[in-house]
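WP5 quarterly update. Target: 15-oxoprostaglandin 13-reductase. Source organism: Megalops atlanticus. Length: 404 aa.
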Amino acid sequence: MSTSFLASYSRKVFLTLGGGRGVRKAVFGSHFVAVPRRSIIDLSYSTHFMDFKGSSIPSSMKKLVVTKLSQNFRDAVSLQIAPVPTPGDGDLLIRNRFVGINASDINYSAGRYDPSVKPPFDAGFEGIGEIVGLGLSASANFTVGETVAYFGEGAFAEYTVVPAKKVVPVPSAKPQFLTLLVSGATAYIALKRLGDLTKGETVLVTAAAGGTGQFAVQFAKMAGCHVVGTCSSDEKAGFLKTLGCNRPINYKAEDLARVLRKEYPDGVHVVYESVGGGIFDTAVNCLAKKGRLIVIGFISGYQTASGLQPVRAGTLPAKLLQKSASVRGFFLPHYLPDYRDAMGSMLQMCARGELTCEVDLGEMADGGKFAGLESVFRAVDHMYSGKNLGKVVVELVPPVDSKL
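Structure tokens (predicted):
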């Protein structure tokens, strides 16, 4: 390696790693050369890091921002133009290809998770896309062009900055992988940590054809359980059968409580419950001795001012005592230590073809496919109408390179 190349290379490294203000002396060959200190990220390299395959990252982007607290998503959230953010030292700048819709998007816009957080704040929980920029420390483990998925705030944007430690590398930017981030992980961890599933037990999954219900059905079947799933149409019932659900119940055509009493007189051992209200009451009543009911949500009440539908809580203590049963809540952020292992296991299942990840991109929705950030509003409405089959996902941009 020539002396001139070494000097040139050493100068670049020094400029990149230098920090603080003032002037330092560096040795290049046999001479001391005074050079100004530079920040930890040398911006002279930003053109390289932030111009993935000549993609010409714009100076501005669209994003969704919660501007006032309301359970009405359209009233709470507005589409805004903002500068494309610059990643910090340990961050990645991700061009979002797909973003996921969750029932809890409304709880977030209503300020129910953290009352101390006041508008404006960014909306959206999960995204998948390509890295188009990154900080110096982040570049030790990631490269521009790599596909990653993430679970965190601010996903409803064309570009999102995410700490490198919070992303999960995925094989490609397919929406099926996005379904695992919140919906799949919730089912996997909740059933593993709170369900205590045993082969031969009966498991009831409410809203079984939805984003997270589809995974609860599959994980319960993998544990050797008999699975009962509620849904709102014959089409969804047919889908549940393809997942291995032993007894789909279309509650619009059959009386759920009557079916459970008649066909499962000894009760069900585990309930994976996301609806709330009357469905919760029915689930409590059908618990077997030592049954476990896991509350992962109560979507029927999210669009109300209180966020809740009334339940018969007054008799709940007696009902649980009589059966030595239990009701436990599950909130994914409380189980983040389990998250990476859950994602790893589910990605392996996908690679082996063992897991179905049904995606609803809105092809059959009013207004057509969910494409572009503006369609997030329609996608939320679609999910709350109960018409979705699988996980509701919005496509933001086409792939930069078809080979990715």
